[in-house]
């Protein structure tokens, strides 16, 4: 027995734009992410920026992992029934990407920190070898 998929209008989604009741549209699917707001690694502010709206571009621009997409799927409640006059997906600002700990390229800031540390360690090791060879 198949269950019927509920359809939501953009107005339905827009009515849920608070931390306590937050719907968001990603790829024309409607998600009730209210239970996840406090757990979101980027913080609640990032989610509030797209609450009650189409957050497809913001979601994609940040470069969410497969695990994040799997978590999102748990909150699916239906499909968006689009009308001609519906707003387009909103883009995430650079400051929102930075505050969420993600770079504009989609990699977490920690990846860049690890790469910088590895380059610094490699440079230090190289200089130590050069110094040993000079004294030998």
Brief characterization of the structure:
GO terms for molecular function: heme binding; metal ion binding. With 136 residues, the protein is of the alpha+beta class.
Descriptive overview:
With 136 residues, this protein is an alpha+beta fold. The chain has 6 helices and 4 strands; from the N terminus they run E-H-E-E-H-H-H-E-H-H. It has a 4-stranded mixed β-sheet with strand order 1-4-3-2. A hairpin with a 2-residue loop joins strand 2 (23-26) and strand 3 (29-32). Residues 94-106 have low confidence and may be disordered. The chain crosses the membrane at residues 109-127.
Tally the structural domains.
2
Mean pLDDT: 80
- CATH overall fold name of the largest domain: Flavocytochrome B2, Chain A, domain 1
What general form does the structure show?
rod-shaped
Summing up helix and strand content along with how strands pair, one would put the structural category as: alpha+beta
List unreliable stretches of 5+ residues: 94-106
The fraction of residues assigned to DSSP E strands is 5-15%
CATH architecture of the largest domain: Roll
How many helical elements? 6
* Helicity, as a percent range: 40-55%
Q: State the major sheet.
A: 4 strands, mixed
User: What separation lies between the terminal Cα atoms?
Assistant: 80 Å
What is the CATH H-level superfamily of the largest domain?
Cytochrome b5-like heme/steroid binding domain
